[in-house]
Design brief:
328 residues, Nucleotidyltransferase, domain 5, 3 domains, 5-stranded mixed beta sheet, 13 strands, globular
Length: 328
């Protein structure tokens, strides 16, 4: 059986799915990136391989998306590399052809995608601040000394959600402390935090967007039923959440690999190969580009960050010792 691997490598979590020619999911895994995307993908591949080893599946296409897609695409010799907007849209439209709006909130980023007749017509992503994302929720869960998995259930028990200043992590934390000190219950504070996240998302990422149903909610935060409820109450729309909504980027990447004409058998032994990255200051001209180089078993594999072809060639010479290295 032919299979297609999709990997979504993010700053907080790394996801993968394997699909067949009919887009049925044959294997899937979600784990933490832990600041090390290369080793996160190696752990991910070990999990995926164990799930399909007895299913007689041959991976013939590999799609990569996510913030570290260039790096991981290079390492895995991917057949297709696409941005998160494209991957999430393709994955969503496969399951919900009539979808008009996609909300996505991940570990450190969030995005909104507006669709019309199956075509992306508008989108936006958060910029510098992670307030209102999964990491923001996790930090508040630690402050309240409770598992993040319990947040949604607590929010549903609230009788009067507390108003929380959720546009900034620092302000939210101080506001939560103040509200607890004056007697607000933990349930009301958590429900208020869920509403603050939704308001922050709609007033920033969703500002000026034409939000129309059907609305699909994705990303790790979509597992929080308190946030789902807040979205429904504030937007007035029914929110669709799939069981595998947190894997939608990887699912879309796998579909893109399926639709791509390139076929190349994937070798799971890549997880045993030693890869490393190095930053090289070119120094060849006034631009002084920092070239990020990927090495496979100590040998130059690929690089980027250069504004001209001379940057790559100079980086190779620096790595080989032909030119005195300026920064590694």
């Amino acid at each position: 059986m032919e299979g297609f691997l999709g990997v979504d490598i993010g700053s907080i979590s790394t996801k993968a799915v394997v699909i067949d020619n009919d887009t049925n999911i044959l294997a899937k895994k979600y784990l933490w990136t832990e600041g090390d995307p290369i080793n996160a993908v190696k752990r991910l591949l070990a999990e995926i391989e164990s799930q399909i080893k007895n299913k007689d599946i041959k991976i013939v296409g590999t799609g990569i998306t996510g913030s570290a897609r260039e790096l991981i695409g290079c390492i895995l010799n991917a057949t297709v590399i696409k941005n998160e907007i494209t991957a999430n849209a393709i994955g969503t439209l496969t399951l919900h052809p009539d979808a008009r709006t996609i909300f996505e909130i991940g570990g450190q980023d969030s995005k909104i995608i507006i669709l019309n007749n199956g075509i992306v017509v508008d989108y936006a992503m958060n910029t510098l601040c992670a307030a209102g994302t999964g990491s923001f929720l996790s930090s508040q869960a630690r402050r309240l000394d409770m598992p993040i998995e319990d947040f949604g259930e607590y929010a549903l028990k609230a009788k009067s959600p507390t108003k929380i200043a959720g546009r900034c992590t620092v302000f939210a934390e101080s506001d939560m402390v103040h509200k607890a000190q004056i007697g607000h219950t933990k349930e009301d504070i958590i429900a208020g935090l869920c509403r603050a996240i939704v308001n922050n998302y709609l007033n920033n990422v969703g500002k000026g967007k034409d939000i129309q149903p059907p609305v699909v909610f994705q990303g790790g935060v979509s597992k929080n039923i308190g946030v789902i409820k807040a979205f429904e109450e504030i937007t007035g729309h029914k929110i669709i959440v799939d069981d595998d909504g947190h894997l939608m980027g990887a699912f879309g990447a796998a579909i893109l690999a399926l639709k791509n004409y390139i076929r190349r058998e994937f070798d799971f032994n890549v997880k045993e190969v030693q890869f490393e990255t190095r930053g090289i200051d070119c120094g060849g001209c006034a631009n002084n580009c920092e070239v990020v180089c990927v090495l496979k078993e100590g040998i130059f594999l690929d690089g980027w960050g250069n504004r001209c072809n001379a940057g790559i060639e100079r980086a190779k010479k620096i790595l080989s010792g032909q030119i005195l290295k300026t920064h590694i």
